[in-house]
Write a structure and sequence with these properties.
The chain is of the alpha/beta class. The protein has helices at 11-21, 32-40, 66-72, 96-109, 146-155, 170-177, 190-193, 208-220, 230-235, 238-256; strands spanning 27-29, 49-51, 80-85, 116-121, 136-139, 158-161, 181-185, 200-203.
Length: 258
């Protein structure tokens, strides 16, 4: 079943729903947002659902300074750098159109657009925003190693997350772990790991006006020194991850042996 919240009444989907309702299972969510979706889903509403976030231990952290990281990708040192990336940018759920609209709105709000640069990364050339918005654009290409991607996160002042359907995305956590703030829609892990107004800003999904205002606030507070990793580390704690899975599996075993 592609989506637990699929409300289609097609014969195939109905068969899947009936089959799942006959099976004893638990639902495991990786964010508060996905947990809320599970609890409102007809498939999961009568099942036990638990929150077990992804651990942070495999997230690479750049060993470069922001200046060194920018030098590596030929990004100007004196610009406010907004990062947006996706391996498959034309996939509708990645929300590229909302990023474009928010950036256009941001351009209309600032008197110094020359101080901004948009850095993009992805597999396809179409990830480039050069024909859709007026800021300078640098396309960094495809990041073929996670280490290189971590350097790109470090080079940015803010990561822009516009995905409209995602369990993560990891980009949010990875940005924060590389001490880069994030501006994001709220339909993902962002509310769990972002300290509003400090390590980033979370806005209502699809609201590109709010998204542009958040980007403007990020620019106006660009000199704010914050530790972006604290809330992220608390939520994505590896020891907590292990314990929650152990407790869940123990509970399942105990129920089966009664």
């Amino acid at each position: 079943l592609k989506c637990p919240q699929n409300i289609s009444n097609s014969a195939e989907v109905l068969r899947d729903k009936i089959r799942l309702n006959e099976i004893e299972f638990y639902g495991v969510a990786v964010s508060t947002y996905t947990l809320s979706l599970m609890k409102s889903s007809p498939i999961f509403k009568d099942k036990k659902c638990v929150l077990i976030p992804f651990p942070y231990d495999e997230i690479p952290v750049s060993n470069l300074s922001k200046e060194e990281a920018r030098h590596q990708f030929s990004i100007p040192q004196d610009k406010f750098v907004i990062f947006w990336g996706s391996c498959h940018p034309d996939t509708p759920r990645k929300g590229k159109i909302y990023a474009e609209e928010a950036l256009n709105r941001l351009h209309d709000k600032v008197s110094n657009p020359e101080d901004f640069v948009l850095v993009t990364a992805g597999l396809k050339p179409t990830v480039s925003f050069e024909n859709t918005q007026p800021f300078e654009v640098i396309h960094a290409g495809y990041m073929d190693t996670r280490e290189k991607l971590s350097h790109l996160y470090r080079a940015a002042d803010v990561g822009l997350q516009t995905t409209v359907e995602d369990a993560g995305p990891m980009m949010v956590t990875e940005c924060l772990m590389n001490n880069t703030r994030v501006v994001s829609f709220d339909n993902c892990v962002s509310p769990d790991v972002i300290e509003e107004g400090k390590t980033g800003f979370v806005v209502t999904t699809f609201d590109t006006e709010a998204l542009s205002n958040a980007l403007l606030k990020a620019y106006e507070t660009k000199d704010l020194l914050v530790d972006c990793t604290k809330k992220c580390l608390e939520f994505n704690n590896i020891e907590s991850f292990k314990k929650k899975w152990f407790d869940l599996l123990s509970e399942l075993i105990n129920e089966k042996t009664k």
